[in-house]
Amino acid sequence: AAAADAAAAAAAAATDQPRQRPTNNQLLYKARFNWEHYTHALTPGARDVLPEETQACASVTSAFLQVLKAIHTAELHRLHGSRNILKALSVNTRRTKVVALSTGTHRVPDELRRHQLSDGEGNEYSTNLDRNRYGNDDQYLFTVVRFNLEALGLCPLICQVEIIDAKAKEEDCLVVKVPDEGCRCNGNSDAAAAAHGRLIIGGVKTPGGGGGGG
User: Fold this and answer.
1) Fewer beta carbons under 10 A from the terminal one: N or C of the chain?
2) In the sheet that 172-177 helps form, which strands lie side by side, from edge to edge?
3) pTM (2 decimals)?
4) What does 104-153 look like in DSSP terms, one character per residue?
């Protein structure tokens, strides 16, 4: 009985204590897609197979590549102007973090080579996304995804990033998205400046550095 009382007291004390900030390996990354902001006509049936979201994962590398794969799939199935966005983005690896593995011009750690995308033309791509290079930007995954969408001339509202504290008692989710006024679906290039802002919705501000596995 004494042991049970001690356990109950410990549980009550733990409940009263504020939750500690999550460590990197507690964080899961997910992206949700708003395909209504993808305005290009697609081949029949292509829009039906586009994902609504990526799988939540501890690896920011995997989350980033899942986003790239979804955008690449959409762009390959454009009714007019189909394009290989992996090849296009790999030209500016320093900003896009997309690396063409065949060129050998950028170092990609061996563990990241396990995460690869194929462009359907025999070329393989990965990323050198590194959480340690972003200083105080704790939503750097969002930063790179947004840059890539804008570089492709696509609306940055297509994708929003979620950072989830996997060990919280209740799901603690930080949503990072482009403000609505950043929409450029109608060719509103002036909106690009507004898109450099970001909205952070829900949860507490968690450290957005990379989770385990990159």
Assistant:
1) N
2) 27-33, 159-165, 172-177, 199-201
3) 0.77
4) --S---GGGGGS-EE-SSS-EEEE---GGGSTT-TTHHHHHHHHHHHHTT
